[in-house]
Here is the input.
Amino acid sequence: MGPSSPADHHTPGASAMPIRGPRTLVATITLTTTLTLTACDPAAEAEAPPAASATVSAPASSTSPAGSGKRTLAEAATAGGLTKATGAGAVSDVPVDPGEMRDGMHLVVADYNRAGQTSGRRILFVGVDNVPEDPNKRREHLWRGLIDYALQNGSTGTPTTAKPYQPGPFGGSLECLSLPESTDATDVICGWSDTTTAAVALFPHTTPDDAARLFAAMRADLEH
Here is the structure.
């Protein structure tokens, strides 16, 4: 039923209804009943035009309502065209503290080779899902740990200014920053967060723009 109906409004002067004859009174009761039934008729409501919805401008780094849903992370053999490293040379421990892990959370740690890569440093990915606190805070925690890892424990743990990029179809936020203080000044760290997941990745020998595009492509395969 809509916000109001004809039955909700009193006819002016209803408290001082004039005395009518029997036929007039019966007609009045019949009309009132008809109006009440019409106001409660679902078919009548369906014909009413929908109410206008308010439009809220999203942040620059959030582009899709898909980011509002609950999503999970899972390892992928290929992510964004990259191939997951396996065997003796693959990452075997957790190089970055993921923060408190609770029941129902999943931790994904993997390194990926670029097309044709057979040696050298790989792209390192660390992500968690079902984050109980603000995922932005969890991303910051992962970010600081990855910076410390990239700088071989020489970081103060405070990220430099990051630039927002398009996060892809899952929405949320995706940002990247370069590590000029690294021994290799072309290292880039990217991170994403949405309503339930947070993840970061270290991209050796990459520009922030290229790393952001690659990270968004990886996300499409790692987040579900």
